Automatic annotation (TrEMBL):
InterPro entries documented for this protein: Rossmann-like_a/b/a_fold, Universal_stress_UspA, UspA
Keyword Transmembrane helix among record annotations: no
Family assignment from sequence similarity: Belongs to the universal stress protein A family.
This protein's name: Universal stress protein
GO cellular component, one term: cytoplasm
Keywords: Cytoplasm
Organism name: Chryseobacterium aquaticum
Subcellular location: Cytoplasm
Alphabetized Pfam families for the sequence: Usp
Segments forming domain UspA: 3-142
Primary residence: cytoplasm
């Protein structure tokens, strides 16, 4: 069976990315290993007293993201595609590549929003970073309208 790693970020284009990954998995009789990487600074806020950490904010956000991840997992399973999921906190590029390695992935499926230039300079591009660093093929799906 072909192992596909599918990182999701819950952006407004996630549904398009998941649709593309489902079609890809169907064609290859693949299994989707769904992953979401939450940032490590979710519970931090800046106020009058500087940085403060609120663990309840982080816990609530992680809980909400896990609910969203479970929904995507169920959607993939409804298409008769084997799927498992993982939510971790940390540096997205590193965790995704480690996860792909641990799953002995054949492909990583990523999305491209069609942005370039100045956007990449200031925001960076996870897809670009994964593509440059991955030892396995990365399928980049256009997920813009």
């Amino acid at each position: 069976m072909i192992n596909i790693v599918l990182p999701v970020d819950f952006s407004d284009k996630t549904d398009l990315l998941v649709d593309g990954a489902i079609e890809f998995a169907k064609k290859l009789n693949g299994k989707i290993n769904l992953i979401h990487v939450a940032p490590t600074d979710i519970g931090f806020a800046i106020g009058d007293m500087g940085y403060q950490y609120f663990p309840e904010i982080e816990e609530n956000e992680i809980r909400e993201e896990l609910v969203l991840l479970n929904k995507i997992n169920q959607r993939i399973l409804a298409h008769d595609i084997d799927c498992e999921h993982l939510l971790k906190q940390g540096i997205a590029k590193d965790i995704i590549l480690e996860y792909a390695d641990s799953k002995k992935a054949d492909f990583i499926v990523m999305g491209s929003h069609g942005r370039s230039g100045i956007y990449d300079v200031f925001v960076g591009s996870l897809t670009k970073g994964i593509t440059k660093s991955s030892k396995i093929p990365v399928l980049v799906l256009p997920i813009h309208d």
